[in-house]
Amino acid sequence: MASEMESSLEASFSSSGAASGTPGFLPPARSRIFKIIVIGDSNVGKTCLTYRFCAGRFPDRTEATIGVDFRERAVEIDGERIKIQLWDTAGQERFRKSMVQHYYRNVHAVVFVYDMTNMASFHSLPSWIEECKQHLLASDIPRILVGNKCDLRSAIQVPTDLAQKFADTHSMPLFETSAKNPNDNDHVEAIFMTLAHKLKSHKPLMLSQPPDNGIILKPEPKPAMTCWC
Amino acid sequence: MALRSVQGDGLTSSRWDGGAEKTDFNAKRKKKVAEIHQALNSDPTDVAALRRMAISEGGLLTDEIRRKVWPELLNVNTSEPPPISGKDLRQMSKDYQQVLLDVRRSLRRFPPGMPDEQREGLQEELIDIILLILERNPQLHYYQGYHDIVVTFLLVVGERLATSLVEKLSTHHLRDFMDPTMDNTKHILNYLMPIIDRVNPELHDFMQSAEVGTIFALSWLITWFGHVLSDFRHVVRLYDFFLACHPLMPIYFAAVIVLHREQEVLDCDCDMASVHHLLSQIPQDLPYETLISRAGDLFVQFPPSELARAAAAQQQAERTAASTFKDFELASAQQRPDMVLRQRFRGLVRTEDRTKDVLTKPRTNRFVKLAVMGLTVALGAAALAVVKSALEWAPKFQLQLFP
């Protein structure tokens, strides 16, 4: 457990290869890294969301993600430079079990994504949440729920109140958004930045307390639920 | 004979780009086409020669040749009518939705200039082929990335033949990826680090410290690089190679790519994100012929049977005796294609000294150690125990190397 904590510190504080066991590298630049894993069914838009945040636009075309993709963006929060790493995972169920596991290591936050135009993807959420519980040591890791594709108004299958109820039950804030909607470039950005702010403010707690020490991050009492499309 | 000259080419392949050798290139190409046709026309078909052609520099050269040779490599009879199904598979198949999603999103796999209508027609065929194979082989399970393999066959040989070829491939080379779970796939990925360790321990240790894992190579392995290479010519060249080789060859090729990028990796921050990011972005200008030749050499030097134990140890804790046994089975099964590589390697022995420097770092010349042990086998049972895992390979292999 101690080593788990140590590597978590490392992942958070080293940006230039100061991992133990590999001496002779540059000293860490001390810019913090927030590692966020994005999970959910196939085709809900995980790749598009992460791409939108990291590249600032909707990708021309995306393909099925096989395994785990990685995207990164540096942001500044309250004058501090922070790297946000998004780990974009394959949606097909068979990849979850044996493949993605490794990448849950040291994650600081989890983003669950469903497709608002696809009820099945919403119904899969409990199994994703369960999956996540099994992989994460700490129970106090911030989690958010994102309903994607809200621009496809006529095709919406998952009503907001249903999603909100679900989010409340699981103590997560809910965001409904669209990675694609060109009229609102900032919403996806705002979601990840909200998460980053939350991580930044709670970070010292997460780092200084062992996971089983009972420090629980209070979820937002009134989650920021809005569709800004 | 031909074998030897082709090997010579392989060693100088990096210089082939030079315009001065263009004439030389054309002459060799012509010669190779003739040899392939000769092998195709001989009775019975000289499959061993075709395997050599598929592996050696340039592979099978054209799609026209591939249409004739790929069925031979897979032992598929082209005169038999292709499998068909009378049922409405799109209604019945549990995989239809996933297949549809993946195929719809696979635009990048089609030639850039292709008219939409034609592409859409091919995408429909792609769905049909996949569903048909799954229906005929209920033991096979669809995985994301399977469509990347099928589309390659569809584009080269057309729907009719693609169905037969992919069906055969799915029950052989791809079989492990199509289990109900990906445990076997994961285990095949476990061969990656031991191969790297044998050749370049420093690189191996760096990657271990970074805890990079092996998922960066997952899509390489299960799509035979079809998912990550944008130039279709490179994809089919690799398919020539893999079709002619042992099912584990793609993991050797993956290792060779990592080894080729040694400096970039070592220059990276030693953490999971940086190394994963670097390695998962595959360079599009890799020296494919050199790497193919190197992968073949590594396969012969460090055959799966020798690596099986190290691979199993990669995740010892999770593994049961039964599955480990299966790995050994896997490692020793279907090795006929390797004879070609071994024969090919025989010609290389003379030049072994030259390639050795490139291939292996001092600590790890297991190849030589193994051979020396082989000579000692007769002296005692202890030595025998040491080389036991390599024994199935050893007799012929060593005779060839040390006549």
- Return residue spans of chain A where pLDDT drops below 50 for at least 5 consecutive residues: 1-28, 204-224
Q: Average the pLDDT over all residues of chain B and give the rounded result.
A: 80
Percent strand of chain B equals under 5%
Helical content of chain A stands at 25-40%
Number of strands of chain B: 0
Order of helices and strands of chain B: HHHHHHHHHHHHHHHHHHHHHHHH
Percent helix of chain B, as a range, is 55-70%
Termini separation of chain B comes to: 19 Å
User: Could you tell me which chain pair has the largest interface and how many residues each side has?
Assistant: A-B, 39 and 40 residues
Main sheet characteristics of chain B: none
How many individual helices of chain B?
24
Shape of chain B: globular
Question: What structural category arises from helix and sheet content of chain A?
Answer: alpha/beta
Low-confidence stretches of chain B: 1-16, 317-336, 347-403
Which term fits the overall shape of chain A? globular
User: Mean pLDDT of chain A, as a whole number?
Assistant: 79
Cα(first) to Cα(last) distance of chain A is 44 Å
The SS-based structural class of chain B is mainly alpha
Q: Helical element count of chain A?
A: 7
Strand content of chain A: 15-25%
Rg of chain A, alpha carbons: 17 Å
Protein name (chain B): TBC1 domain family member 20
Membrane topology (chain B): Multi-pass membrane protein
GO molecular function (chain B): GTPase activator activity; small GTPase binding
Subcellular location (chain B): Membrane
